[in-house]
Specification:
Structural class: alpha+beta
Helix content: 25-40%
Strand content: 25-35%
Radius of gyration: 16 Å
Number of helices: 7
Order of helices and strands: EEEHEHHEHHEEEEEEHEEH
Distance between the termini: 35 Å
Strand order of the largest sheet: 6-7-8-9-12-13
C-alpha cells in the first residue's frame, strides 16, 4: 500500500479539501469537503477512486458545508470531528446563510474522534490528534509513512488559526500546536486548511505566533 493525497481548493474561501487514498486498493476519503461537490467528485472519478468516507477536522462551513449532502447521496460515513464541535454542526445552516453558501444539510457524525484514535483508508492508517483552540472539537490527521499531516485551521504557513470565534482560545491553540503537533517531528509536512503547505520545522523556526516553541 502507498498513501497518496491531492489538494482540492473549494468554495470562495479557497479551503484545502484533501482527497486521500491507498493506491493499492484505490479506496479513498475526503477530508473537509466544504463545498463544490462537482469538483470533488470529478477528482474522484478522474483518479478512478472508490470514495468510502468523509473525515472532518472541524465543523466550520468552509470545511463541512457539503458533508451532509455527500453523506446522504453517496451513503458515506462521516468520521470526526471531536464532539465538542457539535454546536458548530448544529449551526451549519445558519453559517451557510451568513456566508452566502448553499444551504448545508444537517448531519450527525457516524463516529466522533478523540486524541490517539486512528482512522483507516484502505490499508493506510492515520493517527488522530485532538487540537482545540480554533474550535473546541478540532482534530488533525497524521500519516506516518509519508510524515504528512492534515491540520485544518490549527496551523498555517506563517500563521495560526483564528481564535475569535465562539469557544476559540489563543492559549489553548498554542498549547495544541506545541504539545500535539511538534512532537510528531520537524520533518512533518502539513496541508493547512488554507494556503500553501509547510513543515512543522519551518513553522517552529519562523512562524510569528509559535516560532521558537
Amino acid at each position: 500500500m502507498s498513501f497518496r493525497h491531492r489538494t482540492l481548493p473549494v468554495t470562495a474561501f479557497q479551503q484545502n479539501c484533501s482527497l486521500v487514498w491507498d493506491d493499492a486498493t484505490m479506496q479513498a476519503a475526503l477530508i473537509d469537503p466544504g463545498g463544490d461537490i462537482d469538483v470533488l467528485l470529478g477528482a474522484v472519478k478522474e483518479l478512478g477512486l472508490a470514495l468510502e468516507q468523509i473525515w472532518l477536522t472541524h465543523a466550520h462551513i468552509d470545511h463541512a458545508g457539503a458533508t451532509g449532502t455527500l453523506a446522504r447521496t453517496l451513503g458515506l460515513p462521516i468520521v470526526g470531528p471531536h464532539e465538542a464541535d457539535q454546536f458548530w454542526i448544529d449551526a451549519l445552516p445558519q453559517q451557510s446563510r451568513m456566508f452566502g453558501f448553499p444551504e448545508a444539510e444537517p448531519f450527525t457524525p457516524t463516529r466522533w474522534l478523540h486524541d490517539g484514535d486512528r482512522v483507516r483508508v484502505g490499508g493506510c492508517e492515520l493517527l488522530v490528534r485532538h487540537c482545540p483552540g480554533h474550535t473546541p472539537g478540532h482534530v488533525v490527521f497524521y500519516e506516518p509513512t509519508t510524515r504528512h499531516a492534515f491540520v485544518g485551521d490549527v496551523l498555517f504557513a506563517g500563521s495560526i488559526g483564528r481564535t475569535d470565534f465562539p469557544q476559540g482560545d489563543f492559549d489553548t491553540l498554542v498549547r495544541s500546536i506545541t504539545t500535539r503537533l511538534w512532537p510528531l517531528g520537524d520533518a512533518v509536512r502539513f496541508t493547512p486548511g488554507h494556503g500553501p503547505q509547510s513543515t512543522f520545522g519551518q513553522e517552529r523556526r519562523s512562524n510569528p505566533f509559535v516560532g521558537g516553541t
